């Protein structure tokens, strides 16, 4: 008999298919009667969750035998980890396998924003080049890039930035003695001393609004902001206003406060490049992330140590 598994949110379709093949699995997010489904699954020991369908304290409370939450994603802000910990429920995530991919998109967004790559593409397609050259853009060269959150992804972004010859600095909860770049505990001071901020820290309550109005304004009219972390980290209304009023020069955004509902006011702005939360969204990386979910669940059911507990 197959083991039972509750899947609380959508994830990479081949991973979903593999889980539904291996387990007697139910989809919570699309269930017509969620209450009835939860009641019928009260004896399960494992859940697979995702960023677009996490698991809150109420749902955890409905599953008294739960032992593991295998989360699809390195960030697990949609999982109530405190509620899980109180019950001794293990949470796993998908670290490392997406680090380089996410860092690649951060640099792509940075360059696309500063050098106006999407605008250049439209310029050619719309036949505007025939009438004259596109306006010149700002430059990445000679800039100082400040990284908010110097974890695995922050470091991978920093390595790439070094290859572009820019100066670096970083902010985070702690100084990293192995890093040579200046450390700023205060994000406002970091923004003040940098031309570009790249947000790469975890989401959740600890970082909510960390990139505040004061931080955004400290970047200044020549400044750029790139966010590949979580929309919650940035004061989105303040960012929108800063872009509209040219208090900063531009922003490249892969993440938003209420995805997929991006405030339409962003669409009217020429100084922002928007992406639909795709930093890890390639087939090889999503396959590797999915494999970790599969492997963690397999380890749980085999009574073996989990592969990537948080
Ligand atoms: C994905 C992410 O959007 O890993 C994360 O924390 O934000 C991304 O990789 C997500 O995991 C897909 O649900």
Structure notes:
The longest helix is centred in the C-terminal third of the chain and has 20 residues. By secondary structure, the protein is an alpha/beta fold. The model has no long low-confidence stretch (mean pLDDT 98). The chain starts with a strand and ends in an 8-residue tail after the last helix. The chain has eleven helices and twelve strands. A seven-stranded parallel beta sheet has the order 8-7-6-9-10-11-12. A five-stranded parallel beta sheet has the order 2-1-3-4-5. 2-keto-D-gluconic acid binds next to loops.
Indicate the topology.
Blueprint: E1 4-7, H1 13-22, E2 24-27, H2 34-40, E3 46-50, H3 57-61, E4 68-72, H4 81-86, E5 90-92, H5 99-114, H6 117-125, E6 144-148, H7 152-163, E7 167-171, E8 183-184, H8 187-193, E9 196-199, H9 213-219, E10 224-227, H10 236-244, E11 250-253, E12 272-274, H11 283-302
Parallel strand pairs: 1-2, 1-3, 3-4, 4-5, 6-7, 6-9, 7-8, 9-10, 10-11, 11-12
Helix pairs in contact: 1-11, 5-7, 8-9
The chain binds 2-keto-D-gluconic acid.
List keywords for this structure.
310 residues; alpha/beta; seven-stranded parallel sheet; five-stranded parallel sheet; 12 strands; 35% helix; binds 2-keto-D-gluconic acid
């Amino acid at each position: 008999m197959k083991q039972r598994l509750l899947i609380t949110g959508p994830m990479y379709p081949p991973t979903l298919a593999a889980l539904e093949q291996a387990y007697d699995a139910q989809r919570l997010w699309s269930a017509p009667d969620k209450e009835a489904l939860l009641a019928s699954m009260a004896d399960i020991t494992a859940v697979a969750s995702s960023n677009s369908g996490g698991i809150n304290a109420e749902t955890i409370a409905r599953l008294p035998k739960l032992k593991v939450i295998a989360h699809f994603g390195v960030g697990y802000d949609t999982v109530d980890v405190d509620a899980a910990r109180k019950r001794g429920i293990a949470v796993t995530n998908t670290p490392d396998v997406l680090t380089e991919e996410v860092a690649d998109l951060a640099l792509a967004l940075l360059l696309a924003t500063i050098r106006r790559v999407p605008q250049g593409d439209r310029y050619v397609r719309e036949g505007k080049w025939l009438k004259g050259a596109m306006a010149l853009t700002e430059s990445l060269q000679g800039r100082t890039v400040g990284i908010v959150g110097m974890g695995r992804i922050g470091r991978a972004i920093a390595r790439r930035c070094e290859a572009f010859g820019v100066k670096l600095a970083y902010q985070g909860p702690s100084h990293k003695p192995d890093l040579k770049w200046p450390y700023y505990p205060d994000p406002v001071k970091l923004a003040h001393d940098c031309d570009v901020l790249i947000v790469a820290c975890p989401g959740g309550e600890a970082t909510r609004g960390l990139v505040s109005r004061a931080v955004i304004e400290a970047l200044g009219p020549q400044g750029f902001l790139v966010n590949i972390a979580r929309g919650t980290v940035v004061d989105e209304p303040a960012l929108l206003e800063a872009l509209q009023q040219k208090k900063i020069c531009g922003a490249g955004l892969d993440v938003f406060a209420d995805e997929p509902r991006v405030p339409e006011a962003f669409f009217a702005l020429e100084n922002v490049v928007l992406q639909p939360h795709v930093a890890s969204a390639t087939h090889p990386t999503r396959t590797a992330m999915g494999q970790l979910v599969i492997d963690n669940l397999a380890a749980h059911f085999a009574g073996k140590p989990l592969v990537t507990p948080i």
